[in-house]
From TrEMBL, chains A, B:
Keyword Hydrolase belongs to the record: yes
Gene (name only): msi209
Pfam families: Creatinase_N, Peptidase_M24
Database matches in Gene3D superfamilies: Creatinase/methionine aminopeptidase superfamily, Creatinase/prolidase N-terminal domain
Keyword tags: Hydrolase
InterPro entries with a match to the protein in the record: Creatin/AminoP/Spt16_N, Creatinase/aminopeptidase-like, Creatinase_N, Pept_M24, Peptidase_M24B
Classification of source organism: Bacteria, Pseudomonadati, Pseudomonadota, Alphaproteobacteria, Hyphomicrobiales
Alphabetical list of SUPFAM superfamilies matching this protein: Creatinase/aminopeptidase (SSF55920), Creatinase/prolidase N-terminal domain (SSF53092)
Gene Ontology molecular functions: hydrolase activity
Protein name: PUTATIVE HYDROLASE/PEPTIDASE PROTEIN
Peptidase M24 domain ranges (all copies): 167-375
Domain spans labelled Creatinase N-terminal: 15-159
Keyword Transmembrane helix (UniProt): no
Length: 391, 391
């Protein structure tokens, strides 16, 4: 059976070593990862199976991580990871959504490899580490010490390797193709759901050279009044002859995701709205110009905010967030935000979405830019013009 | 600003009343719902915003539930719920992925409406109720008593109203359209990702009468060797002249989802494989024939299993699960499973996916049927022939 690995074995080894080093620093013997992106990062595991309990166990004393999941998904572990058979452990289907707890099964593995008194790191804030998971594990490992290791691996993921940046560039190509098709399709009378349809079609079709895959969230296609609501669902209503479409979409290649947003104006924009677009683009460019290794996240934010303030506007929400490997429900690595107070120093290989969307009292507008930090500044991950599109 | 509600106000009122009755029975004063489907069920709220902390608070002493979420999503709460302004409470963006906890904000609301010593129900096993959420809430409400109310609302959702069944039927129409387009597109040389593309296109385009929306998980398009792996990701490789495609897909209308799977054989199937298909269909039909109000979930399973056993096969995993309203990462209501030991009695309005997929040592096959329990038996939610498709 063929293995599908998107990185060299040595790259996985480097990642595991970095994680173990951080575990040592924090005095953690055994790390239980519930976050699917972290599991993928360390083992390669890729399947949409994390809606049932699934973990990757990293132990200081054991070379390979262990993947633990549902019986029927063991075959995906075999196909998509480099792990040896003994590092793939599956539980029976009787554990699925029943009175049995798969975390008892996980606890047995922890005892086997690290003993009863191990110091266990868990991802307290993870989407897939529920209050129940934590309670069950604590009950099953009464002598262990639990340590919050949330985002431990996320912070290591922050700086992307050249092989990862290559995938981010491919995801950028897909995001571009999606945006161009959306702009083509948007016109008066088109149903919102039919615009969503072509966006999704391109998301998967990707480019002739490489295909795409499902993203960490649906695109946000916010029309008319809903242009004020950043995360609204689309409807099946036809577009009016004059309306605003705020579109945030995502391209994904082997789980690496690039986010991109544009506003498309159906009909001629009002002079005020065009002016707002110009202000957003000017501020966005000022933010991008401030990106360089050694600069801090808040310095980038300040450059954007200063330009925006010059025109009498303010953005309440953060200016951006780091991008990379992700699974539903969200791509956000939950590490660096481009906002006041975030003093993280930028380094080459970090990727961000400069989410320069503004939601004012009566107007919403989204013209944004994903980028990777380079040795000298930044490289845009998409090449769509930074402008208001008018149809 | 226009409100978008998919049910009558009286239907929401009935739902809230049912939940409060169950709260009283369990001696819960205040129920904190983290599960987006439960929030939607009681308030109508619909936006893809649950990846940040978001809750619906139901208090015995208060007529309306309260929606709590991020500032920028308050407008979606206004647009998609019937709630009055005082029942929509939003926290500032400074709480998002920072050192501040939005659960402190939630705790203040709980104290305001129910006092410090309230008995609080929480969804311990919810995807969006992390170990951190629970820990923060317990810290912020030290005098409250916490009670596990996981699935409390899910069980009330189990029996669908006529208005809900109507949406399930529409979701079924979308699932059918998706399956027909997939079968049309599957042929030697087609890239897997291009097949995914047309499936997704139809998922959103829906029918000429009504549009579709994103589903709770991506379709499962498992080709060749991966037909053994139920939740594998697709690739961008072209289909071989002779291969198996196991396709599970989902139609979704206003968040109501219908699941459906078929196997499509590219090239002529081996006689053994065709025989396996016939056995699955015979067993599936036997299971469906056993569906009627008053029968138990395990009786339905037994009818399927008996027929399958007659042909020397066994299915390890459960035969099915209840379907309905859902959000990513999974549609499963986590209530009834069609399997041995589940004694839930079927009632009209319950919806299921009879997931009669088999994953044997060398073969995987998926021919399934979603249905609603009626007064006399069942109504299939899709009308695609129950057969192996050959291309």
């Amino acid at each position: 059976m063929e293995k599908e690995l998107h990185f060299e074995r040595s790259e996985f080894a480097t990642r595991v070593t970095s994680v173990k080093k951080e575990m040592e620093k924090r005095d953690i013997d055994t790390l239980l990862l519930s976050e699917p992106a972290n599991a993928n990062y360390l083992t390669g595991y890729d399947a949409y199976s994390f809606y049932v309990p699934q973990m990757v166990v990293v132990a200081l004393d054991r070379e390979e991580p262990i993947w633990v999941g549902r019986g029927m998904d063991g075959i995906s572990a075999f196909m998509t990871t480099y792990l040896s058979d003994d590092s793939i452990r599956t539980y029976a289907d009787a554990y699925v959504q029943s009175a049995l707890s798969p975390y008892d099964f996980v606890a047995e593995i922890v005892k086997e490899i690290a003993g009863r008194k191990t110091r266990v790191g868990v991802e307290m804030g993870g989407y897939y580490y529920s209050a129940r998971a934590h309670s069950d594990l604590m009950k099953a490992l009464p002598e262990a010490t639990f340590i919050d290791a949330d985002l431990l691996v996320n912070w290591i993921r922050l700086v992307k390797s050249p092989a990862e940046v290559a995938l981010m560039r491919q995801a950028g190509r897909i995001a571009e193709a999606m945006m161009y098709r959306a702009v083509d399709t948007i016109e008066p009378g088109a149903r919102e759901c039919d615009i969503a349809a072509v966006i999704y079609h391109q998301m998967m079709a990707g480019t002739p050279e490489f295909g795409g895959t499902y993203t960490c969230s649906p695109p946000y296609l916010c029309v008319g009044e809903k242009a004020l609501a950043p995360h609204a669902a689309w409807t099946d209503k036809p577009l009016l002859p004059s309306t605003i479409v705020n579109l945030e979409l995502f391209g994904n290649r082997h789980r690496y995701q690039v986010n991109l947003a544009r506003t498309i104006c159906v009909g001629k924009p009002s002079p005020n709205y065009q002016k707002l677009a110009d202000v957003v683009v000017e501020s966005l460019n000022a933010g991008l110009d401030a990106v360089a290794p050694g600069k801090s996240a808040e310095e980038v934010h300040a450059a954007f905010a200063k330009t925006l303030a010059k025109h009498g506007h303010e953005k309440d929400s953060r200016l951006g967030y780091s991008l990379g490997l992700g699974y539903p429900p969200a791509v956000g690595e939950k590490t660096v935000s481009l906002r006041k107070g975030d003093k993280t120093v930028l380094r080459p290989g970090m990727c961000f979405h400069m989410m320069s969307g503004l939601w004012l009292e009566n107007d919403g507008i989204t013209i944004t830019q994903p980028f990777v930090v380079t040795e000298t500044g930044h490289e845009p991950l998409t090449k769509i013009p930074r402008q208001l599109f008018v149809k």
